[in-house]
Specification:
By secondary structure, the protein is α+β, with helices and mostly antiparallel strands. It is built from 29 helices and 19 strands. The longest helix is centred in the first third of the chain and has 41 residues.
Length: about 850
């Protein structure tokens, strides 16, 4: 514990504190800042330095916690030697005051609201990818994952696991979110930029998976404080504290403060950039210009969305120069340009697979509209320059009025007039309403619009970058949400800037400075404002109450650890395909390989080529002690030469928050993972007929069925529109197919349950399935059975079913197309 605490100080405080104290760039000016802001900058600068160092070390394949600590200690020693006794403020610094309690209170509120973090370590979505990338940097010390399991797959057999996608940016998928770049060397690259994974790597190095999970919480806490300090400079301490406190209570911040994501890091760094930019360009503090430049450059290693923030800062620079004659500082531009150049090379080089979708989006933008926007922007800047040269004060006064008109006008249009139609979807048309009704609330929107009028008119030139950045995010994302509208998934778009910005504006309208107002009215306004904000806070607490006790996927870590313990270091684990119907077992492949160090491959198809699979197993048995298969949805991989021995069965239930389409989540549901483990071998399977208990250790015989279930004490699966059963062990003398089926209790309005049966494409018959489990016997064509018995591949039983959809007929979230329940299949 002491070792971790000391390492945390060296990584997250010491370098920044020493740099901040160096007697350069007019130190007395920054020494006059409050004690709490000086501590904040020590932390932010240290984090930026440490994470930048992690990226450099990992790019060189040399990251370790010891190396990072050593670099920080050496750099700190050099700064201490340079500064010497001059590092002491000698009484020139502002002393701590009661205001220190405000950011400390926010940090404590964040620690309360944002813990415990989610146990999201599995694959399938962004959170597991971030965790996997970070843990891999922590374990292997490199951004590029050199994966020996991929390199060992014979080239002729790669299509079993990593088929060539014919993409310019990558060869194939290793796991969802991990791209195979070079199969010969086994080089794999994570999907997402590596700044957040670098922080996860440090957390993992400090305290294993617990430290990796808490990284998101740490980012969210620092983000609250960053919003407070940036807001305090613009709207005052009271309003900024109230807004940041409301932010900690909001369900979006609570959810993502516990859920691995880059948006909380973007919130932290972007508000730090905006504060440093304002300190350097509006407050004329030279020290903060390179700080802002470095932090802005690092944003390119975080998310592509950060480019919108950087464009907004660039726009602010242009507005300041054209409208007020303020030139950008070279000490900001040079470090930003240097790091930004590396960032652009990084995004279009190593991260080209990540950039593929943004580039597709850019290519499909209407060029005429872009040209019109560019001409309009150029014309606006030209008009502003003309006004400044002839009417300087009028030009400065006109800019805030234009910003107010655009924001309020756009909000009015979006609320009252924007409607879906043509290519405009309902969730894009109603994005502002969705954000307001579910997360900000209508009184909050009204207060935020009032805050726009007050703050922008009065204080635009005090912090144009913050105001323009908020405006850019709001206009861009409320125009097109650019994400599937699953709640809370879509709310990621509102988290970094829009929600904190709206709360800052609302709090400014409620309790912000009111110069020129009589003292009595100021007191009354403050009381009313506090009551209003307390009302918002109470509503936010109520909305977040169901989330507070919830831990997403609680228990999945011990389950995965037990599964990993089933296999040894010299075993190979083959996991079912991502394309299996009704099963998500493939999500365990990522943590098994990239957290617990097992040798794992994921099948590319639920029906792999049998000859290729036999050849692969023959090769694998020379490299690995055992070859196992893990699946739960159905995979056709048995043949007369491939056998399987059941090893284990497991059913995992973990809590997962409901995420409906374009609607607020209703609560927690249970996420089921049911799978079996088999040991695969090469040999001759016996010809002794076929009998399958569907739903029990049937994973190697069924394809395109839904997940295992239990009904009336029987293990069953639902068929889909077309489902398959692999029939093995035939002697050639079988004549009868027996199916035990149940229509599942179809509701009124559903088509009658009917199943048409084919044996190796030979029509066997059609069955009208009724209620209750019944045995349906069908005669098999003798010649088809005789031919099937001579083949190496199993015979294929195809069931074509009429289906019904529970969500369409009954409502709810079950969107499966269900045929009939199948309990048993026998060929005799």
């Amino acid at each position: 514990m002491i070792r971790m605490a000391l390492a945390a100080v060296v990584l997250a405080y010491l370098p920044g504190a020493l740099l901040f104290r160096l007697p350069v760039a007019d130190r007395p000016r920054r020494a006059s800042l409050s004690a709490e802001e000086r501590a904040f900058w020590a932390i932010v600068i240290s984090l930026a330095w440490s994470l930048g160092t992690v990226l450099v070390l990992a790019a060189l394949d040399h990251y370790t916690l010891a190396a990072l600590v050593s670099v920080n200690l050496v750099v700190s020693f050099i700064m201490a030697a340079i500064g010497g006794r001059r590092l002491s403020y000698r009484g020139t610094a502002a002393l701590p005051s009661w205001t220190m309690a405000l950011p400390i209170s926010l940090a404590l509120a964040g620690a309360w609201r944002f813990t415990p973090p989610a146990e999201y370590i599995i694959g399938g979505k962004d959170p597991g990818t971030y965790i996997g990338e970070g843990v891999q940097i922590g374990q292997r010390g490199s951004i590029v994952i050199h994966d020996p399991v991929i390199a060992a797959v014979p080239p002729a057999l790669r299509n079993l696991f990593i088929p060539y996608y014919r993409s310019e940016s990558y060869y194939s998928l290793r796991f969802m979110g991990f791209f195979v770049q070079d199969p010969d060397r086994g080089d794999v690259m994570g999907q997402f930029p590596h700044l957040l994974p670098a922080s996860i790597a440090v957390g993992y190095s400090l305290d294993g998976l617990s430290g990796a999970r808490l990284t998101t919480t740490a980012w969210a806490i620092v983000g609250l404080v960053a919003v407070y300090f940036a807001g305090a400079r613009l709207v005052g301490r009271l309003a900024a504290f109230a807004a940041s406190l409301l932010l900690s209570l909001n369900v979006i911040e609570v959810w993502y403060g516990r859920y691995p994501n880059a948006e909380v890091a973007l919130q932290t760094l972007l508000f730090a950039v905006l504060l440093a930019f304002a300190r350097s360009h509006q407050d004329d503090d030279a020290f903060f210009a390179p700080v802002a430049g470095v932090l802005a450059g690092l944003l390119l290693f975080l998310r592509i969305d950060a480019a919108l923030g950087l464009a907004a800062v660039a726009c602010a620079l242009a507005v300041m120069y054209v409208g007020a004659g303020h030139r950008p500082r070279l000490s900001f531009v040079v470090p930003f340009a240097a790091i930004g150049a590396v960032g652009v090379w990084y995004l279009f080089g190593p991260m080209q697979a990540y950039m593929a979708l943004p580039l597709v989006y850019l290519r499909h933008l209407p060029m005429a509209a872009l040209l019109a926007a560019a001409l309009g922007l150029a014309g606006g800047f030209g008009l502003l320059l003309w006004l400044r040269r002839r009417h300087g004060d009028r030009a400065r006064a006109a800019v805030p009025l234009v910003v107010i008109a655009v924001l309020v006008g756009a909000a009015g249009y979006a609320w009252f007039f924007r409607a879906p139609g043509g290519r405009l979807t309902d969730y894009d048309a109603h994005a502002l309403r969705t954000f307001t009704d579910f997360y900000l609330l209508r009184p909050g929107l009204i207060a935020a619009l009032a805050g726009i009028v007050v703050v922008v008119r009065r204080d635009f030139w005090r912090d144009p970058a913050l105001i323009i950045t908020f405006s850019a995010f709001a206009l861009f994302l409320f125009y097109k949400i650019h994400i599937f509208p699953y709640h809370f998934w879509m709310t990621r778009r509102f988290l970094p800037v829009i929600l904190p910005g709206a709360l800052l504006l609302a709090a400014a309208a409620a309790v912000g400075p009111a110069s020129g107002t009589p003292k009595g009215w100021r007191l009354a306004r403050t009381i009313i404002g506090v009551l209003f904000l307390a009302f918002l806070g109470q509503r936010y607490i109520a909305a977040a109450a169901p989330v507070m006790p919830h831990v997403e996927y609680a228990g999945i870590i011990p389950y995965t650890e037990r599964l990993a313990s089933t296999f040894g270091d010299r075993d190979l684990v083959i996991v079912e395909s991502r394309n299996v119907t009704g099963s998500d077992t493939h999500v365990f492949a990522l943590p098994l390989a990239y957290i617990y160090g097992r040798n794992v491959l994921v099948l590319s198809s639920p029906r792999p080529d049998k000859a290729m699979l036999e050849a692969f197993l023959s090769d694998a048995r020379q490299r690995y002690a055992h070859v196992y298969f893990v699946g739960g949805g159905g995979t056709d991989l048995l043949s007369s030469h491939i056998t399987a021995r059941p090893v284990a069965d497991a059913r995992v239930q973990v809590p997962e928050y409901d995420s409906p389409w374009n609607a607020y989540p209703q609560g927690v549901r249970r996420k089921d993972f049911e799978y079996s483990v088999y040991e695969l071998a090469l040999g001759t399977a016996g010809a002794n007929g076929f009998s399958l208990d569907v739903g029990f250790q049937d994973d190697l015989n069924v394809v395109r069925f839904h997940a295992k279930e239990t009904s009336d004490g029987r293990t069953v699966r639902w068929t889909g529109p077309q489902s398959f059963v692999a029939i093995t062990g035939l002697t050639g003398r079988e004549r009868t197919l027996s199916l035990v089926m149940h229509d599942g209790g179809r509701p009124a309005g559903a088509m009658p349950a009917r199943v048409t049966v084919y044996f190796n494409d030979a029509l066997v018959g059609t069955v009208d399935v009724t209620s209750g489990f019944r045995t349906y016997d069908l005669p098999l064509p003798p010649d088809a059975v005789a031919r099937a018995a001579t083949m190496s591949a199993p015979a294929q039983l195809r069931l074509v079913s009429t289906t019904w959809n529970p969500r369409a007929l009954l409502g709810g979230n079950d969107d499966r197309d269900l045929g009939v329940m199948v309990d048993r299949v026998e060929v005799r």
